[in-house]
Specification:
3-stranded mixed β-sheet; single chain; 5-stranded antiparallel β-sheet; 19 helices; 474 residues
């Protein structure tokens, strides 16, 4: 069960609430100064703490006092500037288990709460985007936001036909602000740390920029959400809200209103092991199953994106950061896992070259070290048994990928691996907190074979198998 905030943490939040900004600072120089100052401070403290931990130190990277002071600084800056800055705080809150518990708890506020926009600003965005007065679109519109996050906030509303909807409204100027952040080298450096990326290659930076800026176009998000909604229509544990494209636009997204408990509320209810296992399987199916079965990937696993319903199903929210995987890339990642499971060094090297971990001009490297690294990364998939994800924490993986990796400067980070890292580390953290072992060996094997064991009657997969069988019979 998650721990409540201590009195001093609550006091920090109360002080922060008094300073909440009513608008996003979009000036590039102003943002660069604030974020640059934070990046220098946070980068130095995190680097020093990480060095102590990697050199064998016990306990968290930072002391309680250090972590609390740094988290307070981050919370203040991220909440005011939003955009890329707040996403960085969200990533740090659930990815890096080397941070002190107090720092993680304080940053976790960014998963569910952010400064609210004034209602006049919200109505102004609605009027500008929809081309008419909001009262002509909505029968009712609640002024108090349901939630506020990194680039927008959500309000309950009712359409003229009585349909209850959630209306996501983008912060004015946020795209300009995010573009400014992505030109700030110090901020990009902190993003690298949050994503456990150790390469500064053009492709990685381009991937970061493309995925994050995609979130500023709600038309793209609507298209992704509609794809996921169609794909999971009828699924026994996964629900995706319907989109209303006729009243959505680039900066306004209207979806079916869903109710349920937040992730933290669900955990606080102390669900049974069976309920936890069902939830863990749903999370795994939604994130990695979508990649392996459909080549469509939601890149944002943070805990603010779920609602837990009383019927046992989970509602998945926020489709701004998604990525389609072409068929050849989907098959390449599957080939890598199969080679590691078979403990086939030649197959591992071939898959690593196809994916792009090994550059074409690199022929001399430590092959045993590559094998060991991949076997660590795929540890949850090596045995046909339930795996305890508390054994596979990000700090241990960081050491395997970077500090204990003799191939570090001979390898590349493929661009499409950047957000796979984010999903992997975020999902591992969620699985460890849910606290039930999961047989991912069998689950992934079923996905590779084109089956969802929790939804045998999946019409899309049945159709694919029938099409394949008909083709093979010709």
């Amino acid at each position: 069960m998650p721990e409540p905030l201590d009195a001093d943490l609550r006091e920090l939040l109360e002080r922060q609430a008094e300073k909440q900004a009513e608008a996003v600072a979009t000036g590039r120089l102003g943002r660069a100064f604030k974020l640059g100052s934070l990046a220098m401070s946070a980068g130095a403290k995190l680097a020093a703490g990480k060095a102590r931990k990697l050199l064998g130190g016990e306990g968290p990277m930072l002391s309680r006092a250090e972590g609390l002071a740094l988290a307070s600084q981050m919370l203040t800056t991220f909440s005011e500037l939003r955009g890329v800055a707040m996403k960085l705080g969200q990533m740090l809150s659930y990815v890096d288990d080397g941070l002190p518990p107090e720092m993680r708890k304080l940053l976790a506020v960014l998963q569910r709460d952010a400064p609210r926009l004034p209602i006049a600003t919200v109505r102004g965005v609605l009027r500008e985007e929809l081309g008419r007065d909001p009262d002509s679109v909505f029968d009712s519109f609640e002024e108090a936001p349901l939630a506020a996050a990194s680039i927008g906030q959500v309000h309950r509303a009712r359409l003229k036909d009585g349909t209850r909807v959630a209306v996501k409204v983008q912060l004015p100027g946020i795209e300009k602000a995010m573009r400014a952040d992505l030109k700030n080298g110090k901020v990009v450096g902190l993003l690298h740390k949050a994503l456990l990326v150790n390469a500064g290659v053009e492709g990685v930076l381009g991937e970061l920029e493309e995925r994050l800026l995609d979130e500023c176009d709600y038309r793209k998000e609507a298209a992704y959400q509609e794809s996921f909604c169609r794909r999971f229509q009828g699924h026994p544990t996964i629900v995706v809200p319907k989109v209303f494209p006729g009243v959505s636009s680039q900066r306004v997204l209207v979806s079916e209103l869903m109710e349920g408990r937040s992730y933290q509320q669900w955990l606080a209810g102390n669900p049974s092991p069976e309920v936890r296992r069902r939830a863990a399987r749903a999370l795994y199916r939604f994130y990695l199953g979508s990649l392996y079965l459909d080549g469509l990937f939601n890149c944002d696993p943070h805990p603010g994106n779920y609602l837990f319903r009383d019927d046992g199903r989970i509602v998945f929210l926020d489709f701004g950061c998604c990525r389609p995987f072409p068929e050849e890339r989907r098959r390449a990642w599957i080939a890598m896992q199969r080679a590691v499971q078979a403990d086939a060094p030649e197959g591992i090297e071939q898959a690593a070259r196809v994916i792009g971990f090994i550059p074409k001009n690199v022929h001399s490297f430590d092959r045993d070290a590559l094998r060991e690294l991949m076997r660590h990364l795929y540890e949850p998939y090596l045995a046909d048994a339930a795996y305890d994800f508390a054994m596979h924490r990000p700090a241990k993986t960081f050491r395997s990928m970077f500090t204990h990796n003799p191939n570090l400067f001979r390898m590349d980070m493929p661009p499409d691996a950047v957000f796979l890292n984010r999903i992997t580390f975020g999902l591992v953290s969620l699985m460890a907190e849910i606290g039930v072992p999961l047989n991912t060996y069998r689950l992934s094997g079923a996905y590779f074979a084109g089956r969802d064991p929790d939804w045998p009657e999946d019409p899309a997969l049945i159709g694919e198998r029938e099409t394949a069988a008909a083709a093979n019979s010709r």
